Amino acid sequence: MAKGNNSEYKKMIDKQYSDLMKHCQVQMEKVEKDLPEPKEDFQAVLKEHGVSRRDFIKWTSAMTAALMLPPIFRPMVAKAAENFSRLPVVWLHFAECTGCSEAFLRSSYPNVDDILLDTISLEYHETLMAASGYQAEQNLEKAIKDFAGKFICVIEGALPRGLNGKYLTLGPKGKTGIQVAKEVTSKAAAVVCIGACSCYGNIQAAKPNPTDAVGISKALGISTVNIAGCPPNSVNFTGTLLHYLMFGSLPPLDSLGRPVWAYGKRIHDYCERRPHYDASEFVEEWGDKGALKGWCLYKMGCKGPYTYANCAKVRFNDGISWPIMGGHGCIGCTEPGFWDTMAPLEKPLDEKTYGGGEKTVDKIGIVLTGAAVAGIAVHAVASGVRHSGGKK
Ligand code: FSX
Ligand code: SF4
Ligand code: F3S
């Protein structure tokens, strides 16, 4: 809109938000009507965990902002949190280390996101449920029948396609992972992949990939929401489900299936060591004076300039730290194929392929540092094209 039309522009934005709010209110009423009663009184659970009303309000503000919504949506975020346990979830495990479940569940000082996950209505979860064998299989059949079209299918782990899928068989009938995944996802309202394994194959799919493992979307030819990371951050999962409850739809995704609100920017864009990068202050060797001073880890192989995720903002371990804060560069764990292309290299990526590069950042001086930033920016633009190319 042209300059000078600010009030028109404001009116247009206000109208869009007011329409979105109406849509959200209708959707929340639908949730209360269509989905089962909450299994837990969320406010009581928060109290039990020592989370005060004030802490909860603070959390709703942070989550509203993280979801890129204006503050008027705070009460709706709170309402969605209170209704979180209405959403039926079937949680499958394939080829992976279960680190994702562990990361979500083993919180020493649980925050609101962890508590939300505690209340989640798990109709079936292979690692957590008491049932096994035939009983477990019956539970799964019942859950997908009772909640057909309403449940969220959450998947951890890749699917091996080799030997007709027989590298991974499950349950008393020895079904392949691919069979189980097809049966369950075909009845789900949405499929959410948790972790780099179910998103893109990850370590199972690393070269030479003897079992021909791939992510769920590739194995089944379906669209999935990819909460990438090894393990991913619980905030990115809870935020995505809250969005689903509030609007009845999944948040906008990039071309790799990742929610834009959480994976829309690079690690390099949020990193607290970025001023050191811009000032050409690099760690050159583990334990050197730069390392002690918290300088940039680019020359030690940090892949933050090539990796899209919000780790610096949301952090891990109850918000205490994240990889770069802990002193190691990012290994690119939210990007497809990072085991082959990024993780093993304790040096910057090849300049020709990825932009940026050692040669550029080696040259000290503000003008040349600018060139390095430009090099990475070119990559960012290139990946931006890649990321938006297949937008759903
Ligand atoms: Fe993969 Fe998750 Fe890494 Fe592990 O389930 S994303 S190997 S933390 O456990 O799938
Ligand atoms: Fe941070 Fe890595 Fe970027 Fe340096 S290269 S600013 S450590 S993300
Ligand atoms: Fe993974 Fe890099 Fe974040 S390694 S956890 S994307 S800082």
Would you summarize the structure shown here?
The protein is an alpha/beta fold.
Descriptive labels:
single chain, 392 residues, alpha/beta, Rossmann fold, Cytochrome-c3 Hydrogenase, Chain A, domain 2, 5-stranded parallel beta sheet, two-stranded antiparallel sheet, 20 helices, 46% helix, globular, disordered C terminus, binds ligand FSX, binds iron/sulfur cluster, binds FE3-S4 cluster
Describe this entry's structure for a reader:
The protein has 392 residues and is of the alpha/beta class. Helices cover 46% and strands 8% of the residues. It has helices at residues 6-34, 42-48, 53-66, 74-82, 99-105, 112-119, 133-146, 177-185, 196-200, 216-220, 234-247, 260-263, 267-270, 274-278, 289-293, 311-314, 338-341, 351-354, 358-362, 366-389; strands spanning 88-93, 121-125, 152-156, 159-160, 169-170, 175-176, 190-194, 213-214, 225-227. Strands 2-1-3-7-9 form a five-stranded parallel β-sheet. A hairpin with a 4-residue loop joins strand 5 (169-170) and strand 6. Helix 3 crosses helix 4 and helix 4 packs across helix 11. The site of iron/sulfur cluster (SF4) has 15 residues, from helix 13 and helix 14.
Protein topology:
Elements: H1 6-34, H2 42-48, H3 53-66, H4 74-82, E1 88-93, H5 99-105, H6 112-119, E2 121-125, H7 133-146, E3 152-156, E4 159-160, E5 169-170, E6 175-176, H8 177-185, E7 190-194, H9 196-200, E8 213-214, H10 216-220, E9 225-227, H11 234-247, H12 260-263, H13 267-270, H14 274-278, H15 289-293, H16 311-314, H17 338-341, H18 351-354, H19 358-362, H20 366-389
Parallel strand pairs: 1-2, 1-3, 3-7, 7-9
Antiparallel strand pairs: 4-8, 5-6
The protein binds ligand FSX, iron/sulfur cluster and FE3-S4 cluster.
